[in-house]
Amino acid sequence: MKDSKVRIQVSIPAQRGSDAAIDTREAGEGEHKHEQEQMAEPQPMITWSFPGGSAGEHGAAREPGRPSAGTRVAAKHGTARAEQGSARARAAEAAPLPVPGAAAAAPGGALRGSPARTSRARLPRPWRRGRAARRPARPQRVQLHPAAWALAGLLALALALPLLVVAPGGTHQPAPPAPGPAPAAPSAMPKAAEEPTVSVYLSGTDTVEQLPLERYLVGVVAAEMPAAFQLEALKAQAIAARTYIVQRLRSGDTSGVPGDKALVTDTVAHQAYISRDMLEKEWKAGGKQPELDKIQQAVNDTRGIVMTYEGEPITASFFSTSNGYTENSEDYWSNAFPYLRSVESPWDLEVSPKYKTVVTMKRKELVNQLGLASAAVPVSKSGEGSASFFKVTAYTEGGRIKQALLGGQAFTGREIRERLDLRSSQFDLELRGEEVIITTYGFGHGVGMSQYGAEGMAREGYLAKEILSHYYTGISFAETDKLLPSKK
User: Fold this and answer.
1) Least trusted range by pLDDT, from 30-34, 135-139, 377-381, 424-428
2) Nearest-5° angle of CA 300, CA 302, CA 305?
3) Residue 322's closest CA among 160, 472, 454, 463?
4) 351-405: per-residue pLDDT in tens?
5) Percent of the chain that is helix, strand, coil (3-state, to 5)
6) Which of the residues 143, 376, 422, 457 has the least number of beta carbons within 10 Å of its own beta carbon?
7) Residue 436 near residue 361, CB atoms below 8 Å
8) Whole-angstrom distance, CA of residue 323 vs CA of residue 330
9) Taking a C-beta distance cutoff of 8 angstroms, is the pair 240, 307 a contact?
10) Alpha-carbon 281 to chain mean position
11) Cβ neighbour number for residue 118 with a 10 Å cutoff
C-alpha cells in the first residue's frame, strides 16, 4: 500500500479571518466511495492554538466526538512522513475531511499555506473504524470445559487404536480374539532322537542293526509292499507294520530271533526289512529315489498311528493275496483274536498276479517232504488215483484246507503248505505219472490284511483307515506316544 502524502494549509481565523482549509491528495482517488459517503457529513472543526501567540507558531484544535481523538499529527523542520494506510482508506481521504489533529510546526517554522514554509504531516487513520465495520464478523471462540477436552481426547484415541494395531512396522501384535476354546493341538510324535529304538537281526550278515522306529518302517514298507501301489495302500501297510512292531516293543517279545539278539529279524517270520545300506546302494544309486520318496511319504503321513483293540495294540498280521477271503486267526494259528476274523476280499482276483500258481514236483520229492512211504503214492498216467491219494476232509471259513488225507495219512492244510513250500493252504493236487501238479490260490497265510486286496480297495477310492477297518474287525486307532514311553 502506498503512503498517503497530505498537504495541509491552515489559516488562523482569529488573525487572518479565514477558515482552516484542508486539501487532501491521494493516489487511488475515488476507490471506496461508500466510505466517502459515510464520512461526508459535517463534523465539528478542530481549532489549534499555537504557543507564542502567533499564527503558525502556537495553536491547538480538537474536534470533540471524533473517533480518532487523541491521534497526533506532528511536523518537524517543515516535513513529516505520512503513515502507511490501507488502500481502501485512501479513497475515503480524497474527500475533504475534518482534521482530528493539526500538526505543530517546529520552532521558527511555518505551516503549509503560509508564505514562509511547507510541512508534511502524518495523518490520523480514521478509516480503520470504517474498515473494521466492513469485515465479516469473526466466529466467536467457544471456551470448552476441560472435561469436554478430556472426553474428546478419549474418543480420538478410541478411533485411532485400530490404525495403531494394523500400522506397518509396529512391534506390538496382539493375539486375535478366540471365539471359543482353542482347539487342541494335534499330538506329535517324539523327535527322531526320542523315538523308541528297534533292533533288527540281519540274517544275511548275522549282525544287528539299531535305528529309530519310524526309520525302521521305511525299510519294512519297501520290503513288504511294491512301491508302485497306491499311496493309500502304502499308508495302510505303514500303519500295520508300525502296529506290529509297537506290539512287540510293548510286550518285549523276542521270539523267533536267534539267541534273542534283537527284537525282530529281517525275514517274513516277523516283517521283511531292507537295511539302510541296501536302500542306499540298490534304491538311491539304482535310480529308485522316487519310489523311496513315495514310501517315505506314506510313513510320514501316518506318523505315530497304530491300531488298537480295547486300548491295546493288535497283532497286525498281513499277507500278499487272498483266495477271495481272509482267515480266522484260530484256523491258521492256535489263538483266536476277535479282530482277526474272516472277511471277503474280492479285489485279489482282479489285481493280484499271484492269485493262482501252478507248481510241479517229482513224486519222490513229495514223498520225502511229507514223510510218506513210497508205496503210499500211486503211479498214475492219466491222473487216475489222485482222488484216492489226496482227499480234503475239512475246509476253513475262509475256504482253505483245514484237514486232508495224503496217502491215507492226515495233515492240516498248514502242514502241507509249509512242508511243500506252497504259496497257500488252498490248493488242488493231481498225480501225472512220476510228477505231482499242485495248483494254489492266493499267497500267504490269509490272516489279517491282504496287501493286494488293499491295493484293489485303494484303486476304488478307499482311504487307509477304511482299508484297515475292513480287514481288522472292530479296531480303533491310537498314537504311539500313548502306548510307548518316549526315549529320553
Assistant:
1) 30-34
2) 130
3) 454
4) 999 999 999 999 889 888 998 876 566 666 555 556 678 899 999 999 999 999 9
5) 35, 20, 50
6) 143
7) yes
8) 18
9) yes
10) 40
11) 16
- Cα gap 122→8, rounded to integer Å: 10
Note every long-range contact of 472-476, with CB atoms under 8 Å and residues 24 or more positions apart, other chains counting. Answer: 472/307, 472/309, 472/314, 472/316, 472/339, 472/340, 472/448, 473/338, 473/339, 473/340, 473/341, 473/343, 474/309, 474/338, 474/339, 475/307, 475/308, 475/309, 475/314, 475/339, 476/307, 476/308, 476/309
Sequence ranges of the domains in the chain: 1-128, 192-319+466-483, 356-441
> 182-226: per-residue pLDDT in tens?
544 444 444 444 789 999 999 999 999 999 999 999 999 999 999
Q: What is the pLDDT of residue 399?
A: 96
DSSP code string of 452-478: HHHHHHHHTT--HHHHHHHHSTT-EEE
- Which stretch of 108-122, 158-172, 208-222, 290-304 has the lowest confidence by average pLDDT? 108-122
Give the integer Cα–Cα distance in Å for 211 and 15. 136
Handedness of CA 110, 112, 117, 119 (dihedral sign): positive
As a whole number of angstroms, the distance between CA 449 and CA 272 comes to 16
| DSSP secondary structure code for residue 348 in this structure | H
CA 403 to chain centre: 62
- In this prediction, residues 443-451 reach a mean pLDDT of 97
- For residues 283-308, one letter each, b for 16 or more C-beta atoms within 10 angstroms of the residue's C-beta and e for the rest, the string is beeeebeeebebbbebbeebebbbbb
Q: Which amino acid is at 25?
A: R
| Distances, alpha carbon 88 to alpha carbons 28, 136, 356, in Å | 9, 16, 120
Helix (H, G, I), strand (E, B) or coil at 287: coil
Residue 352 contacts residue 320 (beta carbons within 8 Å):
yes
The owner of cell 502567533 is 54
* Among 110-119, 215-224, 240-249, 477-486, the least confident range: 110-119
Positive or negative CA dihedral for 227, 193, 249, 280? positive
Residues in the chain: 488
Give the pLDDT confidence of 158-182 residue by residue, as tens digits: 666 655 544 444 434 444 445 545 5
- Distance, in Å, from the CA atom of 430 to the CA atom of 384, rounded to the nearest integer, reads 9
In three-state secondary structure terms, 422 is: coil
pLDDT per residue as tens digits for the range 31-62: 444 444 444 444 445 444 444 444 444 333 34
The phi and psi torsions of 191 (rounded to 5 degrees) equal -65, 165
Q: Which residues contact 367 (CB under 8 A, 6 or more apart)?
A: 373, 374, 376, 377
Classified as helix, coil or strand, 378 is coil
